[in-house]
Design goal:
By secondary structure, this protein is α+β, with helices and mostly antiparallel strands. The chain has one helix spanning about 40-50, and strands spanning about 5, 15-20, 25-30, 30-35.
Amino acid sequence: MMRKIVGLCSNCNNCPVVEIDDNCVKVGEAGNLCILKVEEWEALRRKIIDGEL
């Protein structure tokens, strides 16, 4: 099982994170969390890379 957690702020441990695993991608923090299917995450990532967002 792949699991990767990346903080959105390198200055502390209190900022939101992106947590990627085999089934979904979670962006945010407790009470303010967006859960994407892997396919949705890949579509969002591609739009960012392509400059659409």
